[in-house]
Amino acid sequence: MKIRHLNYTFPRAKQPFFTDLSFDLPEHQVNFLIGQNGAGKTALADILLGLRPFKGALTPSLTSLYLNQQLPMLTSIRVSDVAMLILGIETGQRHLTLETLATVVDGPTLAFLTPLWSKHYRELSGGQRKLVQLLLFLQVDRELVVLDEPTAMIEREHAAILFAVMRSHPERTYLMITHDVRDLAAFPTYQVLWLADHQIKASVDRTAFEAASPDSPFMRAFQAI
Ligand SMILES: Nc1ncnc2c1ncn2[C@@H]1O[C@H](COP(=O)(O)OP(=O)(O)OP(=O)(O)O)[C@@H](O)[C@H]1O
Prior knowledge:
There is one protein chain. It is globular and about 50 Å long. It has helices at 41-48, 79-91, 98-104, 107-113, 126-137, 156-167, 206-211, 217-224, and strands at 2-8, 18-24, 30-34, 55-59, 64-67, 144-148, 173-177, 190-196, 199-205. The chain has a single domain, classed as 3-Layer(aba) Sandwich (Rossmann fold), CATH 3.40.50.300. By secondary structure, it is an alpha/beta fold. The site of adenosine-5'-triphosphate (ATP) has 11 residues, from α1. Residues 3-222 form the ABC transporter domain. This is ATP-binding cassette domain-containing protein. Keywords: ATP-binding, Nucleotide-binding.
């Protein structure tokens, strides 16, 4: 995906936040977006998803899915109800049992959901609830999937399940906002975009990232976020 000459001004703001921003989001792989709090990562994600009016060109136009930081949650319902809510419309099924679930979700998701299937949300930990929703939404097929800090507040063991599901859809283009350098190692190829001072200061692939000196400005920035 090519982003060219992107200009964006927040409503009622006097100065533009992004001016003439151009960068590439290689398709069919994971792109990590890093930057300090307030750098504009969520604003940029919103723009790429067409949720904020902007000037500039995004090509090609991709179907998209946005897993934002505040996933909604009805605490009184069961995991099976949440699956029905998220997948019912997508699959056109009126009833979703564990047997039918097996035909519409991938293996890691089925393995994670099976022991939780009849539990109420309130019986789950915060991390488990988050992962239930992330995994179910990731069953919905879209070309561009944006995840805003999906690994915040979840254990590494659970993050590994999320990564397995992401890897099982290599045809997708992912943009993942993260503050956790450990997330990168889960993917064979990736690009890291560093957002600072209202610009993409660096875009680095896995080889360059692994070769980067700990003293480089880019690596220092990652350690600071
Ligand atoms: N309506 C607005 N007008 C002007 N500035 C705004 C407006 N809304 C947000 N901002 C500013 O835009 C900047 C970018 O916010 P954004 O939420 O995109 O950052 P972020 O990198 O996602 O941060 P975090 O890591 O904390 O989630 C922030 O400094 C914020 O104060």
